[in-house]
């Protein structure tokens, strides 16, 4: 039976040692020795001891940028929702590793600080994209983009934490519902993707697990509330 790749062996060794000895007491040499590799191999895969713990945020941010870049003005908010789902799916696919990371960062202040800094990078990316969608760097657009980006990240993190604590059996459905809640708080700015009075009926399309009969009363209330 072949060995797991060195990157995975290093991550498994690191978390095992963190559990046994504590994060501060574990060194890079300890991790490399437990994984059966040398220091050079360790640094080929990870830049530091901290880097073993966290997902590849640079790669995730690039995935988000790529998804946002494929959107048009009229599909910008769909792209935001899809990007949020991409991040959540990455954690879900990590499985137990994500839960072990959550337990560790909850106990170690320096790791918690790094996690907060990483979250800020995601929020900044969404803020810049949303501000551009809203029409540029006006004071009003900047504030709305800041608020909306914060709400987007908060919705994702709320669902992610529920899944990490084994409180959610279907996090993808929950994050889709959470994003609909968020986007409902931020209607498009005047003149953007909104029909003028007298132009007829505006229909907003989104994916839902509910059937049409269930959705129609809510859609009617939404339309009547914006008339």
Structural description of this entry:
It is a single chain. The N and C termini lie far apart (66 Å). The radius of gyration is 22 Å and the shape is elongated. About 6% of the residues have low confidence. 70% of the residues lie in helices and 0% in strands. The chain is mainly alpha-helical and 227 residues long.
Short description:
The protein is mainly α and about 230 residues long. It is about 70% helix and about 0% strand.
Task: Name the features.
227 residues; mainly alpha; 11 helices; 70% helix
Radius of gyration: 22 Å
Give the rounded overall mean pLDDT: 85
Instruction: Please report the number of helical segments.
Output: 11
Largest sheet: none
Helices and strands: which structural class? mainly alpha
Q: What's the order of the H and E elements?
A: HHHHHHHHHHH
Low-pLDDT segments = 193-206
Strand fraction equals under 5%
Rough outline: elongated
Fraction of helical residues:
over 70%
Number of strands: 0
Distance between the termini: 66 Å
